[in-house]
Input
Amino acid sequence: MRMKQFASDNYSGICPEVLRAIKEANAGHAIPYGEDEWTQKAADGLREVFETDCEVFFVFNGTAANSLAISHCCQSYHSVICGSCGHIETDECGAPEFFSNGAKLLHVNSSGGKLDLVAVEDAITRRVDIHYPRPHVISITQSTECGTVYTVEELGSIRDLALKHGMHIHMDGARFANAVASLGVPPKNITWKVGVDVLCLGNTKNGAAAGEAVIFFDKDLASEFDYRCKQAGQLASKMRFLSAPLCGLLKDDVWLKNARHANAMATRLRSALKEIGIKEFVFPTEANAVFFMMDRAVADSMSEKGWRIYDFIGGAYRLMCAWDTEPEDIENIVGDLKLSLAERAGSSCK
Ligand SMILES: *Cc1c(COP(=O)(O)O)cnc(C)c1O
Output
C-alpha cells in the first residue's frame, strides 16, 4: 500500500460516507445548477447544524469560497484585515483582491495564527482620511493556519471590535470541523452568535473530493451572491456532485467524527514525537496539526525516505493528520524520524 503522508490533510482521499453519497447522487438524472434535491438537502442540513436560517452556496474550492465571500462583503475601495499567515494573504495568489476588483488585504500581526486585536484596531483606526483603503472586513481562520483554535471568548472580543467599528466578519473555515470537534460547542456559538457574517465551510480536507459551502448568516449580505458565483465560473452545472458530499458528511455527524479523529491523531502524533526526543514544538496542538523544529539535515533525510514534509510558518515543520490517519501511520513516520535523528546524531559525532 502507498504510504500515507502527513504533509497536509488534503493528501487524504474521499471518506466512504462521502463516496456513498456521491454514488447515490449519481443514480439517474437531476436538475442542474443547484436546483436538485441534494443541494437542497445539504443546505437544509447546514441550517439544522447551525440552528439558523442561513443562505448556502457551493463552490469548487476554498480559494473561490474565500475570495467570493470577501468580495461580496466589500466595495473595491475597502480593505480586509487578516493575519499575516492567513491563507487569503499567503496562499490564494491575490484572488480576494482580484475578485473584489482591488479591495486591499491589510495583514496584521498574529500570534499562533490568531489576530492580535490591538494590531487590528490600530489598522482600523490608524487613518480615517480618504487616501487610505477603508477597513470593512475582519477575516479570521478557524481552526487557524497554525493548528490553534479561537475560543468562544476570543471570538466574542473580535465581535465587539467589529461592532465598534462597523466591520463585517468573514471566517475561513477550511478546517472549521476540527475547531468544533476541539471546542465541543454548538457550531452557532462560534459563528453567527459571535457576529460571523459569512463562513466558508471546508469539506475537502475533512473527507470530500471537492466542494466548499459559503454560508451567509447575514442573509441580506447574500443578495445576488449567485450571480457573483456564476460570473466567477463557480456555478457548477452538475452541482449535486459538490453538495452531495456534504450530505454524506452531515449524516450521522460524520463531519465531526472525521474531525475528532484527525484531532486525536494529531495529539497522539505529538506525544510520539516527544517520546523520540523532539523538544521544540511551536504552537499548541488544538486541532489536527503539529508544528515542531528540526534540523534541515533531518528533514532532508526524511525526504530521502519518501516523506513529504512542509516547512513554513515560522520556519517550523508541519505535520497534519487527516480523517484517515491511523495509529500505524503515526508509528511509520515517527519510526523513520527516529532513524533520521539517529543518523544525524551519528554523523555529527564523526
Ligand atoms: C486548504 C485551505 C483553504 C482552501 O484552499 P484551496 O486549495 O483553495 O481549496 C483555505 N484556507 C485554509 C486555511 C486552508 O488551509
About this structure: DSSP finds 13 helices and twelve strands in the chain.
